[in-house]
Amino acid sequence: MAWIEQRKRADRGLSARVLWRLGGGRGAARQEETFSAGSNEQNLARAEGFKKMVEAAGNHWPDGWVKGEGFVRSRDDRYVPPQSFAEVAEEYVRQIVELSPGQRRRYLSQVRVLTLTEIRDARIFDRQIDAIAEKEIKAWLIDWDRALMTKANYHGLLFGIFTYAMERGHVVENPCARTAPKRSRIRQSQADLRFLTEAEFGTAALLAADAGDMLTLTVGTGLRFGEVTALWCSDIDLERGTVRVNKAWKRDGEDGETETPGWLKKLVRAKHAMRGHHLGNPKTPKSRRTITIAPAIVDLLHPYVEGRAADDFVFTSPTGLAIHNSDFYERVWQPLSVELQDAGVAPFRFHDLRHTHVAWLIAGGAPLPLIQARLGHESITTTIDTYGHLLPAGDELISEIVQTALEGRRIGAAVKIWPLYP
């Protein structure tokens, strides 16, 4: 995962440096690229766009990029005839090496959405790519009726497409370079995370009936839906009280392509099939993890594991098949949401069970690095950005510090500091 560092220059301007580990490995060589030639906003926008290209390339240098120079074309390049946005966009998506089949399918779908989108009575992306200027990108960002986070995700794809178009000689500049939505605005536009109280979850688990145990395991471990529904009985160690997360459901590609790792491909059988999905690696390398479970979870899992085949799914649909997310939503989640509303419990998403798990851990004093490892976050920054505001290091801690000073005692070890690290 790449990250950005900002530095003040001697002329009081701002330079942005993108850093990453080659290939994403913890001990791999550190790489960096600096953007400092433009205005502060331009440097940050270019760094953000380059960071996305690095991550799309699997934490390698983007193909064709020369450090300190960008995408460089040779002097003997010949004239490149104009091409449509859709043609260049598809060419760009299909040449990205580090994309899963499901990701490639999603990007191509996003390209189709863009070409069909009407902004100010015109399809601004349904034209030659060199006819799309910065003003069209701004009009799209202003008028497209989508959440800011969605527009930011699409903007990242657009930045990559136009950077690739510059490399191929289709355009002379990237119209997205100065238009990236600011992170602060994106965060402000997102809804607050939903955390269930112990009583609210108890009501939900009771009303969920047969699915209540799956909800309990989820809130007790923080697993994602695609992880908890991919668990096999062999992933549960009742004696040691652990759950191993080494696979998750992934979307198939355009023509049913899959990306199942070799070790798992040898174990997958017909009973592990699911329409439109296949078993693959978890979301990130650190998402492959083993976590401890509470004694209550161990007791809950006994009847799901004992006497069953090692490669049976822990949780299945009423027909004995793997649980499909859309089927679960229609069969379980929609009826449950209605019952919860009748019971006076505010609505929540399945993923909010993961958030609730973290909220409970923080309330109990668990350090953030341990929570990061438990959730499978690639970076502690993700954990802090998402859940740091839950740390009780606010007015109570400040009051303790002031009280210590006013009592004539030395401020230091005597003051209780919230344990960010173990």
Q: What do you see in this structure?
A:
The protein is mostly helical and 422 residues long. The chain folds into three domains: 73-189, DNA polymerase, domain 1, CATH 1.10.150; 198-356, hpI Integrase, Chain A, CATH 1.10.443; 392-422, no CATH class. Helix content is 42%, strand content 10%. The chain is built from 16 helices and ten strands. The strands form four sheets. The protein has a three-stranded antiparallel sheet with strand order 1-2-3, with helices on one face. A hairpin with a 5-residue loop joins β1 (3-8) and β2. α2 (85-95) packs antiparallel against α3 (101-116), α7 runs antiparallel to α8 and α14 crosses α15. The radius of gyration is 25 Å and the shape is globular. Mean pLDDT is 87; it is low at 413-422. One of its GO terms (molecular function) is DNA binding. One of its GO terms (biological process) is DNA recombination. This is Tyr recombinase domain-containing protein. Keywords: DNA recombination, DNA-binding. Residues 181-402 form the Tyr recombinase domain.
CATH architecture of the largest domain: Orthogonal Bundle
Tally of structural domains: 3
User: Which oligomerization state do the chains in this entry correspond to?
Assistant: single chain
CATH topology title of the largest domain: hpI Integrase, Chain A
H/I helix tally? 16
Q: Give the SSE order as H and E letters.
A: EEEHEEHHHHHHHHEEEHEEHHHHHH
Count of DSSP E strands? 10
Which word captures the global form? Answer: globular
What is the residue-mean pLDDT, rounded to a whole number? 87
Strand content range: 5-15%
Helicity range of the residues? 40-55%
What is the rounded Rg?
25 Å
The CA-CA distance between the termini, in Å, is 24 Å
Structural class: mainly alpha
Task: Kindly report the spatial arrangement of strands forming the biggest sheet.
Answer: 1-2-3
Residue runs with pLDDT of under 50 for 5 or more positions: 413-422
The largest sheet, given as strand count, sense and whether it forms a barrel, is:
3 strands, antiparallel
Under CATH at level 1, the class of the largest domain stands as Mainly Alpha
